[in-house]
Design a protein that fits this description.
about 475 residues, mainly beta, 32 strands, four-stranded antiparallel β-sheet, single chain, about 5% helix, 19-stranded antiparallel β-sheet, elongated
Length: about 475
């Protein structure tokens, strides 16, 4: 009797069930915690009757075999070979993002290993064959489908991938030969030059059209000899005065300010309070030092505007007092791209195909899975960072900009995560050109932190351009060995 140890485990992945070669079969080194299993569903039948000697038995039947469940972790390990960038896990990415042959959706060239989702709008993904070697006992799992992967950014760790997969059936391989199990020379081993990536070097680049300003109109009393809260407007008793305000390109609304029974009672402060109380589309601020009342739209960005047109109120104020009010030219709201510099403290990306397996339910047999189909393609994640403030491109500014854009139905940013650092090698870059970022949450700790969730979204519902992935390996340097 022999024990089998996890430390001895070796895993191979192939695109074919037999006829293994280094071109179609690859060693994939997994980490501690690797697991695979397959369960059955059962049905119980029992009897329960009255009488002196009642029957009380029951039987259990196997009804169907559930898809096998595989969970394993691999390091991200780019390497150069033949002048091209590669990775041992390339075959896993290929099966995750489409149904094509190896090299269809993952392309190796002299500049990078590029992975995209162009071929992912399919009902069934590519099927792989996985082989597990424990030394004394060996297993194979047929028609394995890569369901999802998690990319973690724990800055204290080495960059890794957490894979979830499902297979049709799992069997022990009792006869070992070149047609039943990958043997030496029949698979591509992990090259020694396949490098590891340090998460602590990772950086992110976030940019979006969220550098927004408000459209404003300024009532300028700068020519006045006095401008205080108690300065009267000089209006006649029992007289109404009008002006109109249009916000954000909407139709103008006319407002009426009426002086009471005693003339020259309403003051500059009363005017500001009247504007603030009645203009639901705008905010009002008074600066007694600058001698201005500023009216700004509550919206930010292009299309935000305020336009004040005098009826007879401001001309009356100007003519009857020493306030000398001028309606300055309106300034329209603007939208410009802002790039944020936010060092991360952690995070993750989850890519999920939402795979469902189909299994018949016929009586009298053990039903096996007959296939799978994909569901919604989901690419989501979150990033954590310290809540730095004081600049126009830090985490606090991102939160402010998102709050200023709460009326936007989408919050699209260009988000790129460079695992290992943007200019370093080896590295992996994950670019999401139209990521939707939710308003971050604030976590009160010793150092105040923030966390923001994001979703990679396509430019259209039938598009597949949510994210592209690029592996860049370190170019090996020549080493000269000199005998002593």
């Amino acid at each position: 009797m022999s024990f089998n140890l996890q430390r001895d485990a070796k895993v191979y992945v192939s695109t074919v069930p037999t006829g293994f070669t280094p071109a179609n079969t690859f060693e994939v080194r997994v980490m501690s915690g690797f697991s695979f299993n397959q369960t059955t569903e059962t049905a119980d039948v029992s009897v329960d009757e009255a009488g002196a000697t009642p029957s009380r038995g029951q039987k259990r039947f196997n009804t169907k075999l559930n898809p096998s469940d595989l969970k394993f972790e691999t390091y991200i390990r780019p390497y150069m070979e033949g002048g091209k960038h590669n990775a041992p896990e390339q075959i896993l990415w290929e099966a995750l993002v489409g149904d094509g042959a190896l090299g269809t959706n993952t392309v190796s060239n002299a500049n990078k290993l590029a992975i995209d989702f162009d071929g992912s709008n399919v009902h069934e993904l590519a099927k792989l064959y996985m082989f597990v070697d424990y030394g004394n006992i060996k297993y194979r799992i047929d028609e394995v489908v890569m369901s999802k992967v998690r990319v973690g950014f724990d800055i204290q760790n080495i960059a890794m991938l957490e894979w979830n997969a499902n297979g049709k059936i799992m069997k022990e391989v009792s006869v070992i030969n070149a047609n039943t199990f990958p043997t030496a020379g029949k698979f591509k081993p992990v090259p020694d030059c396949a490098g590891f990536i340090k998460n602590k070097l990772s950086t992110i680049a976030v940019s979006g059209a969220y550098n927004k300003t408000q459209g404003c109109q300024v009532l300028n009393f700068g020519g006045s000899t006095t401008f205080t809260a108690s300065t009267p407007l000089g209006l006649a008793a029992n007289t109404s005065y009008t002006f109109t305000v249009a916000c954000d390109g909407q139709l103008p609304v006319t407002y009426t300010l009426t002086e009471g029974a005693i003339g020259n009672t309403l003051t500059v402060e009363d005017l500001a309070e009247f504007l603030a109380a009645n203009l639901c589309c705008a905010t009002v601020s008074v600066d007694f030092t600058a001698k201005t009342i500023t009216v700004c739209s509550k919206l930010y960005g292009t299309g935000s505007s305020v336009s004040i047109v005098d009826g007879n109120l401001f001309s009356t104020i100007d003519a009857g007092t020493n306030l000398a009010v001028i309606i300055n030219a309106a300034t329209a709201g603007t939208t410009a791209t802002r790039t944020y510099n936010i060092p991360i403290t952690g995070g993750e990306i989850n890519i999920d195909n939402n795979v469902t397996f189909l299994t018949p339910e016929e009586l009298g047999v053990v039903n096996l899975p007959i296939g799978h189909f994909t569901g919604i393609r989901s690419i989501t994640g979150n990033l954590t960072a310290y809540l730095r403030s004081g600049s126009n491109n830090d985490a606090a500014q991102l939160i402010k900009d998102l709050y200023n854009s709460v009326n936007d139905t989408t919050a699209e940013f260009s988000l790129a995560i460079h695992i290992g650092g943007v200019g370093n090698t080896p590295r992996v870059s994950m670019a999401m050109p139209t990521a939707h970022i939710s308003i971050p949450t604030i976590d009160t700790q010793d150092v105040i932190s923030t966390s923001f969730d994001f979703m990679a979204v396509p430019t259209d519902l039938d598009a597949t351009n949510e994210m592209t992935i690029e592996y860049v390996a370190a170019v090996p340097t020549a080493a000269l060995l000199v005998s002593p």
